[in-house]
Amino acid sequence: MTFGRVIGKGGYATVYQGYFFSVSFLCRTWNGKEVALKSFYPGINYELIQKEVNIQQKIRNKYILPLYGIASYKKDNHTEYTLVLELADYSLDVIVRPNANKCFFLFAFECCVG
């Protein structure tokens, strides 16, 4: 994985623009592709990460980025986890801000119904 610029931060993770490289046959479809890398902060409960992965695998919505996979690696005596996601070519602000009230309701509704 090659981490680039930070494109977002939250309570559990930082999201980077980056590239994922793998020699694995299983990863061939996104090998070398520009992706979003959601790197969880050290100490985050693994069950929380597992729950997010399970939800991401089930959801299919134009506002939710597809999950390509998860990478784990050892660093400083602990395991770090990074989700590999499709990199959007837009910001969610572009969708929500122009018509904030109407658009947010429609966005939330569409996310709920899938």
Short overview:
With 114 residues, this protein is an alpha+beta fold.
Output the keywords.
five-stranded antiparallel β-sheet; alpha+beta; 114 residues; 35% strand
How would you describe the overall organization of this protein?
A hairpin with a 3-residue loop joins strand 1 and strand 2 (13-19). It is built from three helices and five strands, in the order βββαββαα. It has 114 residues and is an alpha+beta fold. The chain has a five-stranded antiparallel sheet with strand order 1-2-3-5-4, covered by helices on one side. The chain has helices at 46-58, 92-96, 100-113; strands at 2-9, 13-19, 34-40, 67-75, 78-86.
Shape: globular
Structural class: alpha+beta
Strand order of the largest sheet: 1-2-3-5-4
Query: What is the percentage of strand-forming residues?
Result: 35-45%
Rounded average pLDDT = 77
Largest sheet: 5 strands, antiparallel
What is the H/E string?
EEEHEEHH
- Please give the alpha-carbon distance between the first and last residues: 30 Å
Kindly provide the radius of gyration, computed on alpha-carbon positions and rounded to a whole number of angstroms.
Answer: 15 Å
Number of strands: 5
Percent helix, as a range, is 25-40%
The number of helical segments is 3
**Which residues form runs of ≥5 with pLDDT under 50?**
none
